[in-house]
Amino acid sequence: MLAWSTETKRRADDAATTAKKKAEDAEQARLLAIEQQRQRNEAAAKVADEERVQRCEKIFSGEQTLLTMAADWRAEAENGKMEDSENKIALLLSHLTDLLATCITQQEDIHSLDDALTQVHSRLRQLEQRPVAPPDASSSNTSDRLEALEIDVGSLKDDVQLQQTATQQLEQRICTTANNSSSEPRETAPKFDGQEIFCDSTKTDPIPWFRKFELTLQLHYPDLEDHLGHLRQMLETLRRAKYKANRDKCEFVRQELEYLGHFVTPEGISPLSAKIQAIQEWSEPRIITDVRSFLGLAGYYQRFIKGYSKITTHLTKLQCEDRPFDFREEARESFVALKAALLSAEVLRIYDPLLPTRFTTDASGYGIGVVLEQHDGVDWHPVEYFSKKVPVVHSIDDARKKELLAFVHGLKRWRHFLLGRSQFRWVTDNNPLVFDKTHDTINSTIARWMTFIDQFDFFPDHIPGKSNCFADALSRRPDHCTAVYLTFEIDDDLRNSFIRGYQANPEFRDKYVNCSSPDPTPSNYRIQEGYLLVHTRGKDLLCIPSDPHLSTRLLGEFHDAPATGHFGVNRTIARLRERFWWSGLLGDVTRYCESCEVCRRCKSRNHHPYGELRPLPVPLRRREAIAMDITGPFPKHKTGVDGILTVVDRLTKFVMFLPCRYHAKALKFVEVLYAGWIQTKGYPKEIVCDRDTRFMSDFWLALIKRWGSSLKPSSARHPETDGQTERAQHTTQVLLRTLIRADQKDWVERLPDVELAYSSSVHPAIGMSPLEFDHSSPVTSSLDTITPLTVESDDHLLFLRRMQELLVKARDLMAKTQQRMSQQVNHQRLPCPFHAGDLVWVSAAEFSLE
C-alpha cells in the first residue's frame, strides 16, 4: 500500500512537472512572439516617421517654391515681360498637385493616429476593468492539495470553537472593560476574530418593565404615583450602570406633548401650531415642485380635514407632467381654502379602547366615506375621517355591495384599533346589511369579505340616510366621479357674469348699450332682467357671450345632465338652439362632445374601423415563408390526437394537415412540425403564426433562432394577419364533413384525401394548383390512362425555364390579388389617426374586469 501511495505521488509530481514545463514553454513562446511583434511595430513606425518627415519637408519646400515663383511673376508683370506663361502655369499646377496629394496623405496619417489612440484608450479601460485571474490549478499536485485541505479544516475548527467561546461569554455576561479615552468605562466582549464590541447594558442592568431603549427615554403612565415610582426606578438603574441623562434635555410630568408634528393633549390630537404657521406663510406656488412640496406638508394633516381631496382637487391637477403649469383662479382658491381649513382644523380625539365606538359608513355611485367616532359620556367625537374613490371593478355593483366595500376598507384602515376589542357599533343607512349574515346567495367576492369581517366583534345598526350626514358627505365628493352633474344655479352671480361678458364681447357690447339706453334703436335685441335676448326663428333666444366658463357650464347642463342622456352633437345642438344663441355653437358643441370622457368610455364607435389593409410581402422563393396554426379540438381519435397543425407555403399555397394533440406542449408541436414539414421541405426563413402561448414560449423562440428562421407573430386578437391559414382550416373542416362517417371517428384517415384535394385544385391567388406550382407539372388522375397525354420533354433546361415562368407568373398574380384586396377593403376603412405617444381608449370587450 505504501509503495502504491509512493508511486501515485511520484506520478503526480511528474505530471505536475510536465504541465509546469509546458506552461513555461508556452509563456516563453508568447513573450517571444510579443517581442517580435513589438520590433516589427517599431520598424514600421520608424519607416512611417521618415516618410512623414519627407512629406513635411516637401510641403515646406513646395511652399517656398510657390512664393519664389509668385514674386518673379509679379516682377515680370510690373516690367511688362510675361514670357512663356503657359509653361509657368503648367509648372504651377504640377506643384499644386504634388502638394494636394501630400496633404491628403498627411490627413490619412492623422486619422490613423487618432484611431490607434482610441484603441489604446479602449485597451487601457479593459485592462483596468479585467478581474484578477484565479491561480492556476494545474501547477499544484495531489499532495499539496491534501495538505492545504487539512490546514483549511483545522483553521475552520479553530474559528468555530472561538466563535462558540465568544457566544458563551456574551450569554454569561462575561465582559471586560475597554481602554478608551472617555471619562466613563464601557463594557466590551471579545469577538471570535479578536476585535472588541460594546455590550448591551439593558441585559447587564435591565429595567424589568421597560421593553427597549430608544434614542430618548420616554415614560408615560396615567397615574402620577406610579409614574414617579417608575421614573425613580429608571434613574436608579442608570446610576447603577454608570450612565447619565442630560438634565437640560429632560422634561418631567408633562400633560401635553409635541410628537411627530402633532400636539397631543388629554383632550385630543391637533396639528402642531408651528407647522400650521409654516403652511399659512407658504408663498404662492410658481412651479410643479412648489405644489408638490405644499401638498406633501399639508397632506400629512389630511385626517383632520373633512373633504380634503375635494379642497385640493385643482391643486392636484397641477402635478401632471403632461400639461403646462397654469396657476389659475380655481387653483388659487383651492390654495387659500386649504390654508383656512388647516387653520380651523378640528381636534381629533385620541382613540380609547374602553370608550363606546361607532363606525359609520356610506357609499354612493362613485365614492365611499367612513367616520370613526367615540362617545365620552356627553357626545360623539370624531377620531378620524376616511374617504376613497370606488374602484372601477366595483363601480357597477349594487348599493349593498358598495356599502359592504366601504365597511371592509374602513376595517383595514383601523384594524389596529378595532381588532380584538369588545363590540363596536356599525352604523349604515343600507337596511339589508343589518341582516348580512342571513343572506342565502352571495358571490365569491362577498364571501371573501365576510371571512375578513368575521375577525371583528361588532353589531350593525340602521339609520335613515338623511341622518348619516358625515359619511354621506365623504362618499359623495364630486372629485371622485367623472360623471358628476352640477346644477346650473340661476343667481345674481350668474347674471353679473353675463353682464360682464356682454360688455367685454365686441359682438354684443354695442347691442347691449343700445338696448340699455332710454331711447333704444329698434332691433331684434332686447334686455330682460339684465339678460340680452334676440328674436329669431319666431322665438326669443338668450345670447351667450364668448366666455369659455359660461359656455362650458351650459354644455354640461345640456349634455352631462341625467335628463339629457349624453347624446351626440346633433341632439345637443338641437336642445341648445331652442333656448340660446351664440356664434361658434357648432364648433363648441363638437369639441365638448368629443372630449367627454363618459361618452368616450361608454359609447360604441359607429365609424369604419381604423387602419388600412397592408398585406404581407410576396415571398421570393418556394418554401421560403410558411404560415401555421392549430385548430381543434376534434373528436378524439384512437391514436390520441384531437387537433390539426395546418402548415401553408405562403408562395405556392401548398398545405399540410398534420394531426396532433390540441393541448400538447411546445415540444410535441416541434416534433410534429419537424416530422411532417421540415424533413421534406427544409427549414423556412419566415414563420407567420398567431400569439399562441406555445408559439411564444422561450423554448420555441430559442429553437426558431437555432434554425436561423424569424418568427412573425400576428397582433393580439387580429387573426386576419394569418388569413390564408385560417381560410385553409375552414376549407378543411368543410371537406372533412363531406367525407367522414356519422360517428366522426375516421377524420384522421381522411386527412390525406383532404390534403390532396386542396393542393390539386386551382388556387385563385396563383392561377394554378399548389402541386403544379411546386412540381412544375399537373397532378395525375386515374382517368389519365384513357386520356391521351402530351409527351413531356426530357430537356432539363426546358424544365428549369418552366419552373421560372411559373414562379414569375405566380408572384405577379399574387401581387395583383393583394392590390385588388387592398382596394376593396380600404374603401371601408379609415387611415389610422394615432401616433406614437398618443393616449387612446382601448375596448374592454376582450378583457375581464374581475
From TrEMBL:
Keywords: Multifunctional enzyme. One of its GO terms (biological process) is DNA integration. GO terms for molecular function: catalytic activity; nucleic acid binding. The keyword Metal-binding does not apply. Residues 1-26 are annotated as: Disordered. It comes from the Eukaryota. Transmembrane segments: none annotated. The keyword Magnesium does not apply. Residues 613-778 form the Integrase catalytic domain. This is Integrase catalytic domain-containing protein.
